[in-house]
Specification:
The protein has helices at about 10-25, 30-35, 40-55, 65-80. By secondary structure, it is mainly alpha-helical. Helix 1 packs across helix 3 (about 40-55).
Length: about 110
């Protein structure tokens, strides 16, 4: 990392923008993204605003074609593995035991 060509490229903001881009491209729910990144609503709004300014996504948080091309090229260069995370809705009541009485009280 002593190479001056890398100075300013790998910054916290850029990493967050790139990660958010990948997650949006995979259609991950925004609440899951915020949870994984450990960000507040204000932090997420700030990152979304920054990404919109530079054309990574539109105002509805849809990834732009240009951003998809750049991400695909970066994935090839850095050999980023493309693992899919599956998301599905689980109703806790389907598998969680909830007693009708607790210690004799109902």
């Amino acid at each position: 990392m002593d190479n001056p060509d890398w100075k300013g490229i790998i910054q916290d903001k850029n990493v967050k923008l790139t990660y958010l881009l990948r997650c949006l491209e995979r259609k991950m729910p925004e609440v899951v993204i915020a949870n994984e990144m450990g960000l507040t609503n204000d932090d997420m709004a700030s990152i979304f605003e920054e990404g919109e300014k530079i054309g990574m996504w539109d105002k509805d948080h849809k990834v732009t074609y240009e951003a998809q091309k750049v991400l695909a090229e970066a994935s090839k260069i850095f050999r980023i593995e493309n693992k899919e995370k599956g998301f599905f809705y689980v109703d806790d009541r389907d598998y969680m035991y909830i007693p009708e009485t607790f210690r004799g009280k109902s």
